[in-house]
């Protein structure tokens, strides 16, 4: 990958994040959903986005499956490719936070180091790690895309939880018990956002 060029100089613009946040009426933050395939990241992030949208919050949902059709279409599932995937998504999320949006991301993001990398990219308190904690056995029983079945049969290599690591968050801002009702999980997340004054009570 090409390195940063010292002849390229950062340029500040007159409309600031603060000004954009005032216009939106809320802060820009990232809700970074992490968890196994099938844990419920997309479902819960989608339900939360719908609830926020109804409340008039400006949101955007970045979803692993979708991003891998465009921005990250050249990447696979080796450790190096997953790292690059998360780096790119982190940079996009950072721009969206600067735009004043409540950004929801749904990526397995299996490595602690990469999640920490994204946390470090963002201003203080603008990264909220949401651990969708669903036991592997439950994810495997759900298996909506038949990928666990393929992985167990040896037809799909480097599958997270089977023959590729998932490092659970040690201190996420919130841990969701992924077997509970989606409505309950969504309510917990809305409470957290209100409690942190990210959205109005
Ligand atoms: N080897 C392997 N391991 C894990 N997942 C796989 C793999 N191959 C394909 N898929 C499908 O890709 C989705 C995960 O993509 P992500 O971008 O979220 O992965 S990562 O964060 O870069 O690890 C994941 O989607 P979700 O089930 O929504 O998590 C799978 O559908
Ligand atoms: N809290 C939940 N309770 C029951 N089923 C769920 C729950 N969350 C998600 N699901 C179901 O589990 C499957 C995987 O959910 P999905 O959101 O695609 O997971 P991920 O994005 O983590 O791969 C889907 O069929 C979805 O309907």
From TrEMBL:
Active site: 109
UniProt keyword Transferase, yes or no: yes
CDD domains tied to this protein: APSK
One GO MF term attached to the UniProt entry: adenylylsulfate kinase activity
Pathway(s) it belongs to: Sulfur metabolism; hydrogen sulfide biosynthesis; sulfite from sulfate: step 2/3
Pfam families named in the record: APS_kinase (PF01583)
Reaction catalyzed: adenosine 5'-phosphosulfate + ATP = 3'-phosphoadenylyl sulfate + ADP + H(+)
Keywords from the UniProt entry: ATP-binding, Kinase, Nucleotide-binding, Phosphoprotein, Transferase
Family per similarity comment: Belongs to the APS kinase family.
Protein name in the entry: Adenylyl-sulfate kinase
Classification lineage: Bacteria, Pseudomonadati, Pseudomonadota, Gammaproteobacteria, Enterobacterales
